[in-house]
Amino acid sequence: MDLHKQPAHVLHDMLKNKEIKAAELTQCFLNRMDSLDGKVASYITKTADAAMEAAGKADEIIAQNSEIGFLTGLPGAIKDNICTKGTKTTCASKMLETFIPPYNATVIEKLNAQNTVILGKTNMDEFAMGGSTENSAFFPTHNPWNLDYVPGGSSGGSAAAVSAGFAAWALGSDTGGSIRQPASFCGIVGMKPTYGRVSRYGLVAYASSLDQIGPLTRDVTDCAHIMNVIAGHDASDSTSINASVPDYTKSLVQDVKGLKIGIPAEFFTDGMDKEVAAAVNKAIEDFKAMGAEIVEISLPHTKYAIAAYYLIAPAEATTNLSRYDGVSYGSRVEGEDIVSMMTNTRSEKFGEEVKRRIMIGNYALSAGYYDAYYLKALKMRTLVKEDYDKAFAKVDVILAPNAPTTAYKIGSIINDPLQMYLQDVCTVPLNLAGLPGISLPCGISSQGLPIGMQIIGKALDEATIIKTAYTYEQSKDFSKKLSEVAQQ
Amino acid sequence: MKVTKKDVENVAVLSRLTVTEDKINKYVDEFNNFLEYADVLQQVDTASVKPTAHVLPLKNVLREDVIKPSLARELALSNAPEKEDGYFKVPRIIE
Amino acid sequence: MSYEAVIGLEIHSELKTNTKIFCGCATSFGAEQNTHVCPVCLGLPGVLPVINKRVVEFAIKAGLALNCTINKFSKFDRKNYYYPDLPKNFQTSQFDLPIAEHGYVDIEVEGKTKRIRVTRIHMEEDAGKLVHSGNTIKDSNGSNVDYNRTGVPLIEIVSEPDMHTAAEARAYMEKVKSILEYIDVSNCKMEEGNLRADVNVSLRPVGTEKLGTKAEMKNLNSFKMVESAIEYEIDRQEEILDDGGHIAQETRTWDDGKGITVSMRSKEQAQDYRYMPEPDLVPIITTDEEIAEYKKNLPELPDARRARLVDEYGLSEYDAGIITNSRAMAEYFDDVVAAKVDAKLAANWIMGDLAKNLNAESKTIESSPVSADNLAKMIALIEKGTISSKIAKKVFDEMWQSDTDPEKIVEEKGLVQITDSNAIEKIVDTVLAENPKPVEDYKGGNAKSIGFLVGQVMKLSKGKANPGVVNKLLKEKLDK
User: Do residue C45 and residue A99 have CB atoms under 8 angstroms apart?
Assistant: First the structure.
C-alpha cells in the first residue's frame, strides 16, 4: 500500500489503530522528498531530524492512548511564512535567509499540542506576493501534475507538497487567493477561513487586514479535521474573533437539499478559459440534480476588487515590510552610515515583486495621493463587502470559479505584473470582505491539469461550505485523482 | 495623473530602496500601467461611502496590565547581524 | 521692529503602567540593556500587538483632567519613518481619531490667569535608546541600540500655539505635570525622561496675525531647559529677522552645556509620515456612561484644590497655589490641618522651613523626615503657647534629625515656654539692673534700644520666655 497516496484521515485511522507507526509514515514521506522533491522543489527547509524525533514521541503517545489528536504523528508541511521556533522561517526571501524565530506562531503551538510531525517549510512567493511561486528568491516550485507548469501561489510549495505526496497535509496563508488558487492548480482542497477565525500571531504579515492561515489537504474531510485543530480565539491576536468553533467534522454529511447556492454572473468573465467555465457550470448542474436551489445573484463591484486589493494590500505591505532594515535581525548589506546600510540591505535583499509592491504602497499612502488611491480603495472595500451582505440575505453559499484559467506555464506571464494581478479576480473579493471560501477540484482539463471551483460562505459559517463541498466531493472522484508525481 | 521619474525617485527614497537608472523607466511604465488600471475606481461615486479598514465588528480588545516574561537577552540578540555588549550594533548615524 | 513669540508645546509623558503598551514586558527603569524585550516589542516578523487596558484608562483620565472631549470612537494608526531605535520603522500612534481632543489648561503668570488650549491627546509607543560609541555622534563608528524603552506607553499632549513667553511655556508645562501627578498616571520623573517636551517657536511682528516660520526643539526634559531654549530661540530668530533674514523651518536641539540651540535636520522637505490605520488593532469605543464614571472618579485637581484652600482655610491665592502645585505637598498640608491646627501657620511651616530643608537635602516631601503628624503636633504646641516660634525652630530641627514626637522633644530638652509673668519679671529686673546704658538711651528717646534689652531677657531665659510678655513687662517698667 502506498501510504503517500492516502488522504490524511485514512493515515490517521491507521495510526490510531496501530496499523502503522508514525516513524514509518514519516520516513516514507522523507524518502519521497529525498528522491522526488528535486524536480518539484516544494520545500525550502526540510526538518528530517526533528520530524523523526517528533514521530518517535508521537508513537509513544499513540502506544499509551486509545484516543489521539487528529494530527498526532501525522506528517505535514508548513508554509515558510509561519514562524517556527528554532527552525528557519525565510518567507522565501533573501532578507530572511538566515532568520530563526525565537518563538512559535499560535498555530504551531496548536499543532505541537497534538504532537504532530512537521516535515519542513515550504516554498512560496517571496513574502506571499505572487500567484505562481515563481517569486521565490530561491527557486520556483513545479506543478506535480506537469512539471512545466506553475503550482500557483503564493502557497505553491504547500499545495505542491500535498499534491505530490510529500506531506499528508499542509498549512498555507491566503491574502488574495494564496491558498485557494494553488489548491485549484494542484487538484487539492484549500480553505481560507473567515478573517479572524484562525490566529495570525506568528504569520509573517503581508497585508494584515487580509491575511489568513488555512489548510491545504487532499480532501474535504482532512480540511474539516485540520480546521478543528487550528481555528479558535487567540488573545495574542487582537483581530481574532472570540466565537465558539463548531466541530467541523459534523459537517461531513451529504446534504444540499434546499440549499440556496448563489451564482454570481460577474465571476464568469469574458477572459475565462472555456474548459474552466464548463467544469464550473457542470458542477452547478450537479448541485441542482442533488436538490440544491440555484439562484442567480449579482456582486456588481467585483470588477473593482482587483484595483482596490492592489492598493490596499501593498499599502499595508509597505509598512509591514519596513522592519526589514538590517538592524536587529535578518540580512544586512553594509553601508557607510545607517541610511546607506538600510537602503543597500533592502535594495539587494528584496526581490523585484516585493520592491514593486512596497513602492506602489508608498505611492498610494504618500501625501497628495492618499485620498485618490488608498482611501478610495478602502471605500470600494465597503461596497464589495456590501455586495456580499446583500447576496447572503438571499442565499446560503456562493459558488464561483477559483481562477480564470488552469495552471499556466512557468515563465509565461511573470514579466507582466498587471497580467499577474488580473489572475486574482475570483479570489480577492473574499479577502476584502473577510469571508470564508473553500476551493476543491471539479474537473481535469484536456491538458490533464486540474480545474477548481470555490464555495464561498457567510462570515464564520465554514461549516456550511464544508458540508456543501463534501457533498459534491462524495458524488465525484476528482479528489481521488493523483498528480503525476504522486503516482511515482 | 501620470507618474513621472521624479515620483518614482521620491517613492524609492520613502521606501529606502535604490532604483538604478536603467530600471527607472521600467518602474515608471509599470506604475502608470497599474494606476491607469486602478482608475476604474474613479468610475464609482464613493462620496457617501465610509471606508473599511477592518471587516471585523470587533472593538476594545484589551489585555490586563500584567507582566509576562521577556526573552532571554541571548535569544533576543540571536538574529542580530551585529551585536556588542548586549546591544544591537548599527553603523553610524548622521543626521 | 518688535516681535511677538508664538509658542506651542508637545508634551510626551510616559505612563506608569506595569507593562508596555502592546506586550507584557516590564516598563521598569534602569534594567540591563535588551532584557525587557520580547518578539512583539522587538518587532520580529509575525508578531501582533495587544493594547494594555490601563494605557487607555490613563489616557482617558488625562483627557478629562485636561478638560478634553473624549472621542467615543478612537483608533490607532501607523506613523511611518525609519530610525534604528524604532524596530518596525513605524510608530504605532494615533492620527485622525485620538483618544481626547479640545481641552484646555489654565495657567497663572505674573498674577494673571491665562487659558492655554489643548489640541489633542493621543496614545503611542516610545522608541528605544541609542548609545553612541564615540565621544560625539560624528566620531562614532557606530551606535548601540537598547530596546528596553521600546513600547513603553506614552501620551502626547499637544497644545495650541497659545503661549508667548518662556515663562508661560514653563507655567503650562508645570501645570500639566502637576495635573498628571494628581491623577496618578505618570511618575513625571523628568530626569528619567518620563516627561519631556518638543517646543515650537516662531516670531511675528507685534499686532499681526499671520504665523511666522517655526523652529522645533525636541526632547527638552527640564523646566529650565524649556525656558532657556525658548529664550535663546526668541533672541536668535529676532536677530535673523532684524537683519532681514528668513527663519528656516527646522528641528533644532538644545545644547545645555553651551546654552544654545543647534540645527539638527531641515524640515524644509516636510517629513511624509504616510499615516495609515493600524490593521492589527481594533477601535477603542468608549460610552457616555463609561466617560461619566471616569469623571466621577477623578480626584480633586490642582485648581479646585487651590480654591478650596483659599475658601476653607483663608490662605492667600499665592500660598494656596504653591501648596497645591504638587499633589504630594497638598496632601501633606491636608494631613497637617486634619489635626485642626491653624492652617496659615501650617502653610508657613510647609513652604518655609520644611521646603527649605527638603531642598537642601534634595528630598521629596513623601520622604520627609518630619511627618505631617509631628508637624501638626508642633504647631499645636505653638498655638497653645507651650513653645514660642523661635523655640519651634529648634524643635523642628530636632524632628528633622530624629522624627521624634515634638512633645517629647520639648519635655526632654526643657523647652517649655515661660509665660508666668512673675518668673519673667525677675529676669527683666536683672537685665534692667545690669544694663544701665541701654536703659538710659531708651529713656533719652532711643526707642530702638528696647530690642537689645528684649534680646538679653531671651538670652537669660534660654529663649524660653514668652516674647510678648517680655515686651510688655519691659515697656511697663521703662515707661514708668
Answer: yes
- The pLDDT tens digits of the residues spanning B17-55 come to 999 988 999 999 999 999 999 999 999 999 999 999 989
Contact B61 C50 (CB under 8 A): yes
Contacts of B61 in chain C (CB under 8 A): 50-51, 281-282
Cβ contact, residue pair B90, C82, below 8 Å? no
Residue A488 confidence (pLDDT) above 90: yes
CA distance C470 to C454: 7
The string of pLDDT tens digits covering residues A131-178 is: 999 999 999 999 999 999 999 999 999 999 999 999 999 999 999 999
Report DSSP letters for B7-65, one per residue: HHHHHHHHTT----HHHHHHHHHHHHHHHHHHGGGGGS--TTPPP-S--------EE--
Contacts of A205 in chain C (CB under 8 A): 45-46, 280
Q: Does B65 touch chain C (CB under 8 A)?
A: yes
Fold of B5-42: Histone, subunit A (1.10.20)
A439 is catalytic: no
B53 interfaces chain C, CB cutoff of 8 Å: yes
- The per-residue pLDDT for C432 is 86
Domains (ranges, CATH) in chain C? 3-290 (no CATH), 300-413 (no CATH), 421-478 (1.10.10.410)
Q: What is the pLDDT of residue C268?
A: 46
Decide: C37 and C43 in contact? Cβ < 8 Å.
no
Structure confidence at residue C427 (pLDDT): 87
pLDDT tens digit sequence for A28-59? 999 999 999 999 999 999 999 999 999 999 99
Quote the CA–CA distance of A155 and A173 in Å, as a whole number.
7
Residue-wise pLDDT for C14-62, tens only, equals: 999 999 999 999 999 889 999 999 999 999 999 999 999 999 999 999 9
Taking the Cβ of residue B15 and every Cβ of chain C, the question of whether any pair is shorter than 8 Å is answered with no
**Which residue in A has a C-alpha nearest to residue C42's C-alpha?**
A328
Instruction: Walk me through the domains of chain A, giving residue ranges and CATH numbers.
Output: 3-256+462-480 (3.90.1300.10)
The domain limits of chain B are 5-42
In order of A68, A277, A399, the CA distances from A146 in angstroms are 37, 21, 27
Helix (H) or strand (E) holding A403: none
SS3 track for chain C: CCEEEEEEEEEEEECCCCECCCCCCECCCCCCCCCCCCCCCCCCCCCCCCEEHHHHHHHHHHHHHCCCEECCEECCEEEECCCCCCCCCEEEECCCCCCEEEEEEEEEECCEEEEEEEEEEEEEECCCEEEECCCCCCCCCEEEEECCCCCCEEEEEEECCCECCHHHHHHHHHHHHHHHHHCCCCCCCHHHCCEEEEEEEEEEECCCCCCCCCEEEEEECCHHHHHHHHHHHHHHHHHHHHCCCCCCCEEEEEECCCCEEEEEEECCCCCCCCCEECCCCCCEECCHHHHHHHHHCCCCCHHHHHHHHHHHHCCCHHHHHHHHHCHHHHHHHHHHHCCCCCHHHHHHHHHHHHHHHHHHCCCCHHHCCCCHHHHHHHHHHHHHCCCCHHHHHHHHHHHHHHCCCHHHHHHHCCCCCECCHHHHHHHHHHHHHHCHHHHHHHHCCCCCHHHHHHHHHHHHCCCCECHHHHHHHHHHHHCC
- How far, CA to CA in Å, does C423 sit from each of A188, C392, C410, C412? 113, 21, 19, 21
pLDDT at C133: 67
**Mean pLDDT estimate for chain A:** 97
From B63, B69, B86, residue closest to C52, measured CB to CB: B63
For residue C413, pLDDT over 80 is answered with: no
- Over range A255-265, report the average pLDDT: 97
